[in-house]
Amino acid sequence: YRRLHAGGSRLSGFNQTERKAMLGSYTKVLFVRDPFHRLIATFLQGMGITPSFSSFVQEVLDSGMHNGSVAWKPLVSLCRPCLIQYDYVVKFGFLRQELGHLLRRAGLPAGSLLPELTDSQVQWTYRWLSEQMFSELSAQQRKQLSHFYRWDLAAFPLSSSFLSD
């Protein structure tokens, strides 16, 4: 297909046959992170211009699905899991275990290539941060965030997310 090699083409611009041909020879991996954790990380990295997490969340909600930053847009809108059949979905918090498996499947020595990942410490830290940040939000903001990320919560196994409640 001539269009397959054209720069700047979006995957959604191709028909199903073209997508299948283009992606068929690749191993497709999707890295998934709790959307609330993504918001916290974005806020802590200083991408929000407001001084409080609650104000930052309000900015995110006001920006909407289509005008927001990729840092906080729902993953479903970015990675198109309905268009792409991913071979692996790797959940943040299980990176060391999952990446080792992926490297072994690719025939690579898993142990020597992996950085030191402390998944349990990361999970504990985000759990604590989530509790602190979630308590800053109004009931209305919590409800709106759950609605904003509803497709991510439905598509990926994120039952421990504060937004799943």
Automatic annotation (TrEMBL):
<dbReference type="InterPro" id="IPR018011">
    <property type="entry name" value="Carb_sulfotrans_8-10"/>
</dbReference>
<keyword id="KW-0333">Golgi apparatus</keyword>
<keyword id="KW-1133">Transmembrane helix</keyword>
<dbReference type="InterPro" id="IPR005331">
    <property type="entry name" value="Sulfotransferase"/>
</dbReference>
<keyword id="KW-0812">Transmembrane</keyword>
<keyword id="KW-0119">Carbohydrate metabolism</keyword>
<keyword id="KW-0325">Glycoprotein</keyword>
<protein>
    <recommendedName>
        <fullName>Carbohydrate sulfotransferase</fullName>
        <ecNumber>2.8.2.-</ecNumber>
    </recommendedName>
</protein>
<keyword id="KW-0735">Signal-anchor</keyword>
<dbReference type="GO" id="GO:0016051">
    <property type="term" value="P:carbohydrate biosynthetic process"/>
</dbReference>
<dbReference type="GO" id="GO:0000139">
    <property type="term" value="C:Golgi membrane"/>
</dbReference>
<keyword id="KW-0472">Membrane</keyword>
<dbReference type="GO" id="GO:0050655">
    <property type="term" value="P:dermatan sulfate proteoglycan metabolic process"/>
</dbReference>
<dbReference type="GO" id="GO:0008146">
    <property type="term" value="F:sulfotransferase activity"/>
</dbReference>
<dbReference type="Pfam" id="PF03567">
    <property type="entry name" value="Sulfotransfer_2"/>
</dbReference>
<keyword id="KW-0808">Transferase</keyword>
<comment type="similarity">
    <text>Belongs to the sulfotransferase 2 family.</text>
</comment>
